[in-house]
UniProtKB/TrEMBL annotation:
<keyword id="KW-0862">Zinc</keyword>
<keyword id="KW-0963">Cytoplasm</keyword>
<keyword id="KW-0479">Metal-binding</keyword>
<keyword id="KW-0805">Transcription regulation</keyword>
<protein>
    <submittedName>
        <fullName>Transcriptional regulator FurA</fullName>
    </submittedName>
</protein>
<keyword id="KW-0678">Repressor</keyword>
<dbReference type="InterPro" id="IPR043135">
    <property type="entry name" value="Fur_C"/>
</dbReference>
<comment type="similarity">
    <text>Belongs to the Fur family.</text>
</comment>
<keyword id="KW-0408">Iron</keyword>
<dbReference type="InterPro" id="IPR002481">
    <property type="entry name" value="FUR"/>
</dbReference>
<dbReference type="InterPro" id="IPR036390">
    <property type="entry name" value="WH_DNA-bd_sf"/>
</dbReference>
<keyword id="KW-0238">DNA-binding</keyword>
<dbReference type="InterPro" id="IPR036388">
    <property type="entry name" value="WH-like_DNA-bd_sf"/>
</dbReference>
<dbReference type="Pfam" id="PF01475">
    <property type="entry name" value="FUR"/>
</dbReference>
<keyword id="KW-0804">Transcription</keyword>
Length: 144
């Protein structure tokens, strides 16, 4: 499996031991972007039935700390995880169903947005959440 060995190389580059739970979490996030912890656990258990909740939490924390996984926390929602890291992309979040979509950085590199007043800060990152209603939810509403 070619992707698995890519993941092994990424783990080694981040000085993390290659373990089956870590590979399973990376594989789950490759196939499902912006999923919450419970979803990651059920995806990993489909592959490794005996992995504990705590083990998956620990893997997510280690991978996030190492920069292999990005954790996003839309206000009022559970934390979500994705493999797309390092590009400072933003997110569209549906208020109705919670669906999340990626939005590329407006100018292509972090921090992407200029603050109206930086108050002397050296800004290296801007994270924007665009809240709204996704196309499916909009269509359902107008169909009612
Ligand atoms: Zn929606
Ligand atoms: Zn994303």
């Amino acid at each position: 499996m070619r992707m698995a060995s890519d993941f092994e190389a990424q783990l080694r580059a981040a000085s993390l031991r290659v373990t089956r739970p870590r590979l399973a979490v990376l594989g789950a996030l490759r196939d499902h972007a912006h999923v919450d912890t419970d979803t990651v656990i059920s995806l990993v258990r489909a592959e490794l039935p005996r992995v504990s909740h705590q083990a998956v939490y620990d893997v997510l924390r280690a991978l996030t700390t190492a920069g292999l996984v990005r954790r996003i926390e839309p206000a009022g929602a559970a934390a979500r995880y994705e493999l797309r890291v390092g590009d400072n992309h933003h997110h569209l979040v549906c208020r109705s169903c919670g669906m999340i979509a990626d939005v590329d950085c407006a100018v292509g590199e972090a921090p992407c947005l200029t603050a109206s007043d930086d108050q002397g800060f050296v800004i290296d990152e801007a994270e924007v959440v665009y809240w709204g209603t996704c196309p499916d939810c909009t269509n359902q509403r107008s169909a009612q």
